[in-house]
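During the reporting period the student researcher (J.K.) took over the structure-prediction task from the postdoctoral fellow and processed the backlog of single-chain submissions. One of the processed entries is reproduced below for the supervisory committee.
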Amino acid sequence: MITQNVFLLQIFTLSMDHKSESSYMNDDELCYMSATEALANFQSRALSPVELIKAIIHRAEEIQEKINPFADQYFDEAIDAAKVAETKYYNSSDFLGCLEGLPLAVKDSTPVKGRRSTNGSLINAKQIDHSSNPSIERLLTNGANLFARTTCPEFCWLFTCHSRMWGITRNPWRLDITPGGSSGGSAAALAAGATTIATGSDSAGSIRQPASQCGVLGYKPPYGRMPLSPSNSFDPFVQIGPMARTVSDVVLMSNVMSGPHALDHTSLPEKLSIPGSLQSIKGMNIAFSTDLGHYKLANDVESEFLASIQSLSSAGAKIEEVPLNGLSEIIRLSHGAQEFLAHSFLKDAVESHSDVISDYVPELLETALKYDVEDYQRSKLLAGEIWQDHLGPIFQKYNALICPTVVSPMVPAENWQTHKISLADRQLTDTEMTMTALFNLYSRCPVLAVPSGMTNDGLPCGLQVVGRPCDDITVFRIGAAFEIVRPWMQLDKIRTCRELIDKNDNR
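J.K. obtained the following structure tokens:
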């Protein structure tokens, strides 16, 4: 049995055989270097893209057996691509992409031309994509170096990250705990220093919940901001988005990925560029809710959330708690509407591929069949009423709404959708512990997941900054303020967490 684990903290200080070519940079500095810092070092020739990708690959190989964040890997090709990028930085006449040479990991569910995207399922084990997701294509065109795909649960339909296809992905902070789902591989890789930037997808919280579980950042953009593949571009619940360790890196990726695309009819017509230097939040009116009128947080998660919220006052914002009542039904239906839409493909998987699907897939179908067309129609009608009577007025008065991301991060790595998790005097499913799906229903609202602190058990927890429809910039301004007043993923801060966690790596 895997008990409380310090793997993430141990790898910060491991003495490894691999040595950096830069005399002043050790492996931790390379593996946890932000994308913006790496680009500046590439430009000044203080760091080579080859040096960085080799350090990242070394870290990826080191952690793969224990954490298992990676699906398919393209290490040799990535080193070759880094060599090409290196020559571009030395030749001023060569075109440099704005992400040139940055190590990139892409979620296994997202199409990449010439690669397979299995969506975490053995059913798709031989599927090779003939075109790339438009947002991913933009990252690659701008020089990002795709070196691996990251794991996801089968069909991206769990808030944990395990499948028959890829096995169990674990949280670097504690190996018996999940990194979250469905973009758990991307979040775990970032937390473990095994990629510089990554992507996820989010239809019920699949970017934000793993970001919170692993102590990194994740962004669910407004529907239409970042173009989607034809298979899901007309599904307003689904978004693709960036995941990283700093706000500036998420901004960098967002500016590349966003904008209208001729092959996505639903993409927003305007190209939004988020400033690299974000204004302060002085004078901004920000609302917060601890429970969305429905959830009950673990005590330590609530304490960290409230401390984070209050810290924004020191940045000059006006913070006010707002009462939210009557949201329980719309929260239930924000999950239920998507469950209803999943009937067909889950039914086909169970009836036609029972020999290869993960053990939990029949359970997914059983849950989905509890919702019918009336639930789906009710979700649409009620969503309008709730926006008019509750959320709309809040966004008229306040620039943003902040709430926690999860009730508690204490979700076992191998949890199934209907498994019960003990939390104080309650028995909850992982769905009942995740506070994200409501804002997929209100799909034009941008949402940035930001780390908010550590629980008493030494696990990260996070919050969501929810913006007015299509007001991405305000969300990033608040995220940047959090990064200043409550710095998180700096190495020196993480090292101080060592005493909070048992130092023995026991199995």
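The committee noted the following: The first strand starts at residue 70 and ends at 73.
J.K. will present the remaining backlog at the next meeting.
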